[in-house]
């Protein structure tokens, strides 16, 4: 009896997820980040869920990871390196002015993580930031689109982190 109940629960869950699968998407991005005079390669991955889809407007909730850049410098005492990344929770609002083309804005809370290594010792600092992005995407095939975006994250201390990316997006 327990096995039948477990199998029924799993089957119900899979059917429910399959029915809702069209609302999910994943996105991977590559780009370039810059903080003041330092710049470097970036990558990100996120998952999203479409909350609202009416006419030409879509609103989605997103959760993602961003690896912004690695800053390396030399000092009198040795090498210093700092990896900057984040975990982001946000929303995406998109508008389709014509078939297969979308423009969007993103707003996200980002838990910024700075892993610093100096004198052979590692430390991690975190800060809470908000980011803003504008972008566009084009559906190149059924359920698959390519896009680009510009993201701005004002950081504590007055510096700005900018990130320009190209992305691939798969809709389930």
Strand composition percent: over 45%
Strand order of the largest sheet: 1-2-3-4-5-6-7-8
Biggest β-sheet description:
8 strands, antiparallel, barrel
N-to-C SSE series?
Answer: HEEEEEEEE
The overall strand count is 8
Which value, in Å, is the CA radius of gyration? 20 Å
Distance between the termini: 34 Å
Low-confidence stretches: none
Shape: globular
Tally of DSSP helical segments = 1
Backbone structural class: mainly beta
The helicity comes to 10-25%
Average pLDDT figure? 89
How would you characterize the overall build of this protein?
By secondary structure, the chain is mostly beta strands. It is built from one helix and eight strands; from the N terminus they run H-E-E-E-E-E-E-E-E. Strands 1-2-3-4-5-6-7-8 form an eight-stranded antiparallel barrel. A hairpin with a 2-residue loop joins strand 4 and strand 5. The longest helix is centred in the first third of the chain and has 19 residues. The protein is globular. It starts with a helix and ends with a strand.
Please specify the SSE layout and strand pairing.
Blueprint: H1 2-20, E1 24-35, E2 38-54, E3 57-75, E4 78-98, E5 101-118, E6 121-141, E7 144-154, E8 160-171
Antiparallel strand pairs: 1-2, 1-8, 2-3, 3-4, 4-5, 5-6, 6-7, 7-8
């Amino acid at each position: 009896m327990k096995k039948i109940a477990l199998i029924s629960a799993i089957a119900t869950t899979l059917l429910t997820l399959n029915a809702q699968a069209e609302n999910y998407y994943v996105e991977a991005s590559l780009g370039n980040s810059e903080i003041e005079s330092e710049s470097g390669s970036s990558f990100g991955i996120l998952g999203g869920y479409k909350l609202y889809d009416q006419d030409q407007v879509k609103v989605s909730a997103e959760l993602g990871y961003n690896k912004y850049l690695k800053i390396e410098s030399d000092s009198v005492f040795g090498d210093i390196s700092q990896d900057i990344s984040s975990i982001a929770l946000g929303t995406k609002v998109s508008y389709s002015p014509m078939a297969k083309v979308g423009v969007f804005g993103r707003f996200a809370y980002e838990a910024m993580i700075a892993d610093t290594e100096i004198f052979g010792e590692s430390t991690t600092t975190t800060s809470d930031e908000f980011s803003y992005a504008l972008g566009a995407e084009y559906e190149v095939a059924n359920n698959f689109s390519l896009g680009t975006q510009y993201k701005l994250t004002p950081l504590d201390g007055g510096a700005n982190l900018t990130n320009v990316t190209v992305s691939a997006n798969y809709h389930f």
